[in-house]
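TA notes, week 10

Several of you asked for a full example with nothing omitted. So below is the full record: structure tokens for the whole chain, then the designed sequence directly under it. When grading your own attempts, check the secondary structure regions first.
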């Protein structure tokens, strides 16, 4: 079982901050190496701010539906390549929070 943390999480990693049917991913913090439903949850529960993963991180995302670890490129396709569950397209607004711009 892969763990994802957050506040008031449901079984697919929806949290108190993001809870539409499409909000089903966990995102990895580069500093603590843990997956969180969102940066708000992370920053509330941890003693440090969420740090974005860089391009070297193999699996910065976890699908909340099937629990598969995903590459950034998998996530950016808009749905899980394993279970085909769609992700929230509005999450691209937060990509700078979750993923480093460095290549």
């Amino acid at each position: 079982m892969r763990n994802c943390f957050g506040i008031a999480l449901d079984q697919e990693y929806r949290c108190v901050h993001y809870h539409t049917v499409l909000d089903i991913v966990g995102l990895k913090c580069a500093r603590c190496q843990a997956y969180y439903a969102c940066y708000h949850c992370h920053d509330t529960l941890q003693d440090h701010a969420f740090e974005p993963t860089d391009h070297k991180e193999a699996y910065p995302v976890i699908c909340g539906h099937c629990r598969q670890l995903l590459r950034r490129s998998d996530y950016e396709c808009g749905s899980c390549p394993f279970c085909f569950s769609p992700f929230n397209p509005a999450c691209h607004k937060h990509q700078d929070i979750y993923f480093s711009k460095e290549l």
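Residues 15 and 29 are 16 Å apart (CA to CA). Use that as a sanity check on your answer.
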